[in-house]
Amino acid sequence: MTEDSHDADAAAELDYLRQTPAEDLLAHHFFVLAQWAAVHLAATPADLSGAQLVIDVMGAVLDAGEERLGAHTPLYRSALAEIQQVFVRASLASNAGPSAVADAGERPPSD
What is the pTM for the complete model shown? Predict the structure, then answer.
């Protein structure tokens, strides 16, 4: 990569950031964080500390931004709640061990 192409890329990136509303940019990054947390939780074994950090940052973004994040704030709160539930399940599975996780999948038939 030449210095000229690097300068052009940097200028294009700055132009993009100037033109993008803060709410849109934060929404994009919020869902990237959600994906990142999911990757940590899907690892074998789950990276609970990494996922917890990402989930905490997601919560901080919502707390700091509140309704200023726009009309989709309830969607962000729902996404955070879902990833928190996945975290709880992964934590329980991690603490219970593989045999307890297998047993948890076997439910007695309901009447």
Answer: 0.75
pLDDT class of 6 with cuts at 50, 70, 90: confident
Nearby residues of 62 by Cβ (< 8 Å), 6 or more positions away: 30, 69, 73, 76, 77, 80
Distance, in Å, from the CA atom of 78 to the CA atom of 64, rounded to the nearest integer, reads: 16
State how many domains the chain has. 1
C-alpha 22/C-alpha 61 separation (Å) is 12
State how far Cα 48 lies from the chain centre. Answer: 13
Range of the domain at 41: 21-104
* Domain presence at residue 6: no
Q: Is the dihedral of CA 75, 81, 84, 90 positive or negative?
A: negative
Q: Answer yes or no: are the C-beta atoms of 50 and 1 closer than 8 Å.
A: no
